[in-house]
């Protein structure tokens, strides 16, 4: 069975969520073993076997996205082709599985307190800066104060080194100085979790869980592109049950 965890957050009973980890699959090194990414050089048959194993844990095949670090948000029940180019998906229909894949970027799962709508968001720093969270919350079309968020495993604040241009870009958007620690010579450590929380809070989303993992520093548990380069992808999934 693939290795996975259930997010710990106060979601309503009809909201189901799953975070895959890197073990329990069929892929050889360097994608070992439960790689769900079909764009990272792994053999098609290995990815298919891993996705088939995942499918047994879900009500139906996930709605896979072709992620491009943008701000397109799609309704998982309104798009016929799969995958579609987007970085977030939402649904109000039961049994439709929204999913994003990551290996350092921040996955965010969202739901409302009544369990009427859910969303999965792929939020690397480019997507965060461009407004993927804001777009996803807008498309969910419920008051932001009624939303719950879970921040999945991403590169941690002690490992995420960025250049001065990234920090300046975020500071032009909002006062987030505390999310950056100077290393010198134009380099900074960035806290992607804090950057996401700030944007969620600014929208009115205050019930936020997760955000305490580091994909880089836990190689037995998580894939990390920053650490390994050629590697697999994990998936964060959410759906509404009957």
Write the layout of secondary structure elements.
Blueprint (H helix, E strand, L loop, with lengths): L3 E2 L9 E6 L23 H12 L9 E2 L6 E3 L8 E2 L2 E4 L6 E5 L3 E7 L5 E6 L1 H6 L1 H9 L6 E5 L9 E3 H10 L6 E5 L2 E4 L1 H12 L3 E4 L14 H4 L5 E7 L2
Briefly say what this structure is.
With 242 residues, the chain is α+β, with helices and mostly antiparallel strands. 22% of the residues lie in helices and 27% in strands. The chain has a single domain, classed as 4-Layer Sandwich (CNF1/YfiH-like putative cysteine hydrolases), CATH 3.60.140.10.
What key phrases describe this protein's structure?
242 residues; alpha+beta; CNF1/YfiH-like putative cysteine hydrolases; 6-stranded mixed beta sheet; 4-stranded antiparallel beta sheet; 6 helices; 15 strands; 22% helix; globular
């Amino acid at each position: 069975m693939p290795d996975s965890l259930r997010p710990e957050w106060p979601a309503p009973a009809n909201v189901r969520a799953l975070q895959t980890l890197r073990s329990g699959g069929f892929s050889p090194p360097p994608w070992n073993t439960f790689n769900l990414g079909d764009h990272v050089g792994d053999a098609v048959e290995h990815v298919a076997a891993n996705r088939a194993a995942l499918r047994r844990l879900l009500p139906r095949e996930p709605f896979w996205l072709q992620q491009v670090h943008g701000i397109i948000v799609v309704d998982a029940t309104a798009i016929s082709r799969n995958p579609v180019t987007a970085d977030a998906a939402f649904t109000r229909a039961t049994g439709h599985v929204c999913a994003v894949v990551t290996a350092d970027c921040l996955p965010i799962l969202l739901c409302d307190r009544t369990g009427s709508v859910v969303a999965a968001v792929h939020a690397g720093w480019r997507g965060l800066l461009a407004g993927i969270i804001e777009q996803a919350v807008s498309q969910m079309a419920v008051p932001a104060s009624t939303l719950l968020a879970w921040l999945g495993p991403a590169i941690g604040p002690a490992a995420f080194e960025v250049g001065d241009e990234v920090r300046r870009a975020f500071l032009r958007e909002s006062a987030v100085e505390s999310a950056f620690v100077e290393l010198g010579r134009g380099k900074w450590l960035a806290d992607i979790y804090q950057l996401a929380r700030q944007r969620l809070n600014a929208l009115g989303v205050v019930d936020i869980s997760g955000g305490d993992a580091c994909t880089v520093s836990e190689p037995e548990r998580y894939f990390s592109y920053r650490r390994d380069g050629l590697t697999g992808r994990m998936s964060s999934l959410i759906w509404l049950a009957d």
